[in-house]
Design brief:
- The chain is globular and about 75 Å long.
- The relative contact order is 0.22.
- By secondary structure, the chain is of the alpha+beta class.
- The protein starts with 5 loop residues before the first helix and ends with a helix.
- Strands 1, 2, 4, 5, 7, 12, 15, 16 and 18 form a nine-stranded antiparallel beta sheet that branches. It has a seven-stranded antiparallel beta sheet with strand order 3-6-17-8-9-10-11, with no helix packed on it. Strands 13-14 form a two-stranded antiparallel ribbon.
- The longest helix is centred in the last third of the chain and has 25 residues.
- Strand 10 and strand 11 form a beta hairpin.
- It has one domain: Sandwich (Jelly Rolls).
- The structure holds calcium ion.
């Protein structure tokens, strides 16, 4: 160990830090941890600045409410806040939807969020749609979170297809969807995703790859819209936190953490060595 020179430590440290910066770079297009809203409970859109959400289709039984995490469901303490997307009674009069404001358009990138899906819901779950607008025909990609599975949705009516992966209910999960609407394959740190496809990452592991787009939007088209919508017969709640949409795919997160850990370890070793020489 003593034979490793200071220069060597510095070289390794720089390498670890630069790999971290490569992981971390990227343009954040949308970001909401729901902690800035006050007082809670508060409905979306909040009217506060910056207003991340522009449209919510709600009624008395279909609500999007920022609440305090009094049960510490997300493990970030009871002062944490999250979004509760709840439907208490189904009727055909309204398909509830929460949509972000239009963001700087991108053809590829990733959507990341933490979610907690309590058991006990019925019907189809919440569908994430993103594209050039907030309707079915303007959705480039669509994936639902429902009763322990992610389901693909495609076609002009955003029709439910097979489940692409599963997750555990009644606990917090991290979902990252890498999407590629460019005309060619996208290589990112975690893999390669073909044109018009998405990769699905759950808690740092890729659980589905090459998942199809809706077929409604041509590849090569830039996307600028995101929403949550629930459709057929859904009654239940889904809790969302730490939503971000980024124009770059920066996963896998664990390697980012590993790079930080490696940098910290090397720095500590270097400082110990310097101290030991004095
Ligand atoms: Ca939060």
């Amino acid at each position: 160990m003593k034979k490793i020179s200071q220069n060597c430590y510095l070289f390794l440290l720089c390498g670890a830090l630069s790999s971290f910066s490569l992981c971390a770079q990227g343009a954040v297009l949308v970001e909401d941890n729901f902690n800035g809203y006050s007082p809670v409970p508060e409905s979306l859109p909040t009217g506060e600045s910056p207003e991340i959400w522009k449209t919510t289709l709600t009624n008395a039984n279909k609500t999007f409410t920022v609440v305090a995490d009094t049960g510490n469901l997300f493990g970030q303490g009871t002062s944490n806040q999250f979004l509760n997307m709840a439907v208490t009674s189904y009727d055909t009069s309204l398909q509830p939807m929460a949509a972000t404001n239009t963001f700087n358009s991108t053809q590829s990138g990733q959507i990341s969020l933490d979610f907690y899906d309590p058991t006990g819901s019925t019907g189809d779950g919440w569908i994430m749609r993103w594209g050039t607008g907030n309707g079915n025909s303007t959705s480039a990609f669509a994936l639902s979170i429902q009763d322990g599975s992610f389901y693909l949705y495609t076609g002009g009516s955003i029709t439910k297809q097979d489940a692409v992966a599963s997750y555990t209910q009644d606990t917090v999960n991290n979902l990252v969807v890498v999407f590629n609407n460019t005309g060619s394959a996208l290589t990112y740190e975690g893999g390669t995703v073909a044109s018009g496809m998405m990769d699905v990452w759950l808690n740092g592991t890729r659980v589905a790859s090459g998942v199809s787009n809706t077929g409604n939007i041509s590849t090569g088209t830039s996307l600028n819209s995101f929403n949550f919508v629930s459709k057929a017969q859904y009654v239940g709640s889904l809790y969302i936190d730490n939503l971000s949409i980024d124009s770059n795919a920066s996963i896998p997160e664990p390697s980012e953490s590993a790079a930080i850990l490696l940098a910290a370890t090397l720095l500590l070793a270097f400082l110990k060595r310097v101290k030991g020489r004095r």
